[in-house]
Design goal:
The chain is an all-alpha fold. It folds into 2 domains: 58 residues; 209 residues, no CATH class. The protein starts with a helix and ends in an 8-residue tail after the last helix.
Length: 280
Amino acid sequence: MTSRLPGLLAAIALVAAFAASPLSAHAQAADTTAAPAAAVQAAEAPADAAAPAAAAPADNPYGLKAMISHGDAVSKGVLALLLIMSMGSWYILMTKLWDTRKLAAEADRVRGSFFKNPTLADGVKGLQDGSAFRFVAQSAIEASEHHEGTLTEHIDRSSWVTMQVDRAVGQVNRRVQGGLGFLATVGSTSPFIGLFGTVWGILQALTAIGVAGQASIDKVAGPVGEALIMTAIGLGVAVPAVLGYNWLVNRNKSVMDEVRTFAADLHGVLMGAAIRAPKA
């Protein structure tokens, strides 16, 4: 019995070893498969955590907002001047567009109805108060009725009326052309004002390089970005002003031709027949 006991113990130990080896292999396989899964989760966790941060847009440190926030007095002054010039240009463009449209519409009404009235007095009453055509008509009629005086008697009646009509047309033309000088000034000077901002930005960049002692990108990018923004704004102010100026000049020529035609016809009527002037 005792002689068989060591053999029995050896057999039990061998069976236990074989039974334990599959469990350990399975555990190692589980650890092997769990490790990549944990690594994947660890890799995905920062990505998921970084997703909200990536979704939030970062402020551009070299854009217009940064220039306004961190720019000096010169750059802000140039920007304010360009803004005022742009606002003035667009105001003139809109108001002159409205004025010329109103004048052209009135010219169509005058062409179709004014000279069909029985008298010039009735025609003047049908014109809108404060309009250019009413101003020219009243000036011509007043000159025709008040051709007296020691000095004006040396001028014949036709020449006197012609002079007064030309003066009235000239006043209308000055009102129509008002503001075009500002557009021409903006169109010719705003690129150079933007260029001044560009030169100032480059000077600031060179100063930053000299102070830092090295040409690092963070020292150069900000001032150079401001310089490029100033150039773009200067061109953005100049182009609408130049285009608007040329467009308004051609439009004003068209409406002023209508006013001059009306004045010439009115002069012919005044010289051809007697009229009753409207009472004040």
